[in-house]
Amino acid sequence: MSSTEQSPSPPLPNRSAEVRRDAIFDRWVLISPARARRPSDFKSHSPASSSASGNRNPKPSCAFCAGREGECAPEIFRVPPSSSADWKIRVIENLYPALRRDAEPPDPSDDLAAAGTGRCAVTGFGFHDVVIETPDHSVHLPDLSPEEVGEVLLAYKQRIFQLARLGSIKYVQVFKNYGASAGASMAHSHSQIMGLPLVPPLVSSRLDSMKKFYDMTGKCSLCEVQSEDILVCDTVHFFAIVPFAASYPFEVWIVPRDHTAHFHEIDHEKAVDLGGLLKLILQKLSKQLNDPPYNLMIQTAPFDLSTSCAPYTHWFLQILPHLNVIGGFEIGSGCFINPVFPEDAAKILREVDCSK
Length: 356
What we know:
Elements: E1 18-22, E2 27-31, H1 50-53, E3 75-79, E4 89-93, E5 127-132, H2 146-164, E6 171-178, E7 190-196, H3 201-217, E8 231-234, E9 238-241, E10 252-256, H4 268-289, E11 294-299, E12 316-321, H5 328-333, E13 336-338, H6 342-350
């Protein structure tokens, strides 16, 4: 790890509200510390572990646990692949999928991006999978070793490659909901993968925004995003920041140093490196913020990415702790209110010691 984790920082300054532009997602964020207590006092009022701690069963169990595989939807693959060995990771179909893999794919001649302003509907074709990250009900992602977290990331990669070969899938969203208020319906540590027959609008607008920056500067916006005041920690291959215009308090992005468009281009060495950094960031968030619910997303590129888009397309991993409530202003305007300055959040997370 870089020395940034241990280096002393000056006291947090008093700040006036600012309106900042997020150059990646092309949106405005109101940084308004007057709406909050001290940044270091931020804690989750509904820790994700609270529901589990209320379970009096000393050995809680569910359908995702080892020995209850028959209660789940069909398995796609497992790690290790041998059926005779104890599994570490299972990738299965979602028992309640948002999209149907047995539906008819949209006609390739249909340009869904140019559907016009009228009504447009296609069959709900797609893939919705679950990645069971551990056979142990009481173990969560940051409890795993860097190598084990890396294996989870490589399982994502393997499934993305499988979906890419189908041709009918245009974009894959990998995400993890941790805690009931963040959307998790199962306490057992897991994440999800959705293969879509279209490129979501938020992905298109993200790429358009990154293109604008590239057209103005000749540089990739994510290659240029790192600065000492928003850096949390870094490794050989990745760095973690609280983005300059973070939409959520204590939002963290983990960005690869190498300019790479697609997450599934990651190799084993980088997966283990990312696994260690992701583990550390989740530990810091849990320790500082009282184990908050969070959403984790891999922001990658569509499969059919033009070579002309490569210079400004850069994947990253985004973590959004749930510490405040999204209200009517945010929903109506598309502008977010963040009560914690990103520089202050980064400083606080830098100084969280997870070595004990």
